[in-house]
Amino acid sequence: MRLEPTSPDDFLTLRRLFDEPSFHGWGAPGRVSDELIHAKYLGARLPDVECYLVLVDEEAVGLVQLHTTGGDDPGIDLILTPAAQGHGTGRRVVEAMIRRARERNIDRLTVDPDAGNEDGVRFWRAVGFQPRATVTDDVGREPSVLMTRDVEPAGNEAAGRSDALTPASHTSRRQGPAAPIGVDADGIANTGH
Predict the structure, then answer these.
(1) What is the mean pLDDT of residues 47-61?
(2) Distance CA 138, CA 165 (A)
(3) What's 147's DSSP letter?
(4) CA distance linking residue 14 with residue 39, whole number of Å
(5) pLDDT of residue 71
(6) How many Cα neighbours within 13 Å face the side chain of 100?
(7) Which of 24, 52, 118, 139 has the most CB atoms lying inside 10 A of its own CB?
(8) CA torsion angle for 122, 123, 124, 126 (degrees, to 10)?
(9) What would the mean pLDDT of 52-63 be, rounded to a whole number?
(10) Which CA distances in Å does 43 have to 21, 135, 171, 186?
(11) What is the spatial distance between Cα 23 and Cα 161, in angstroms, rounded to a whole number?
């Protein structure tokens, strides 16, 4: 598994992902428009929102965002195709995003799965996020569960592990190539080209 920063070159890949029925309603009601994909998911909101394709065997199986604007705390949004779920991919993505948050000096992250998405709430609990509140007044959205997780200082999460590496900075391809974030077999984020 590796995470590749999105760029305008990834439009067709994202269009294919957002056309998956499991993606409908994520990021906007119904099918996400081409315009919204260009505006939200192709690097236009850097540095406030970092978007990464989730790749398994070089196939795009999801999208993850690390956002530092909106709400009380920075947060993560993650969606995987059903075929990519249940194999540890989501857990490895979250571990990489925690490391990225640490690199950006973020000390707490939020997530907000739909309250009716029991599997999603259970997943976020399993990776260390704790429910804080149920949000019912977000216009145009089903009620959601606001969940938070503290980002541990460097060293605490990898005690006794000498192979913990920090992911490279996310940069737009317009500014130069960004190193993808990869995760090795032990779930340790690393960079590669």
Answers:
(1) 96
(2) 38
(3) E
(4) 12
(5) 59
(6) 35
(7) 52
(8) 90
(9) 97
(10) 24, 28, 9, 29
(11) 36
Helix (H), strand (E) at residue 2? strand 2-5
- 46 is written with which tokens? 């850097």
Written as one letter, the residue type at 75 is G
Global pTM value: 0.80
Q: What is the pLDDT of residues 72-116, one digit of tens each?
A: 689 999 999 999 999 999 999 999 999 999 999 999 999 999 999
Q: Please check the confidence at residue 172 and state whether its pLDDT lies above 80.
A: no
**What pLDDT is stored for residue 67 in this prediction?**
94
131 prior amide bond cis, ω within 30: no
The span from the CA of 109 to the CA of 80, in Å, is: 19
* Cα–Cα distance for residue pair 1/157, rounded to 1 Å: 20
Distances (CA, A) of 6 to 51, 71, 145, 186: 6, 23, 27, 25
CA distance linking residue 136 with residue 117, whole number of Å: 14
Q: Which domains does the chain have, with CATH numbers?
A: 2-107+151-191 (3.40.630.30)
| Cβ(147)–Cβ(110) below 8 Å | yes
Using alpha carbons, select from 78, 79, 77 the residue that is nearest to residue 22: 79
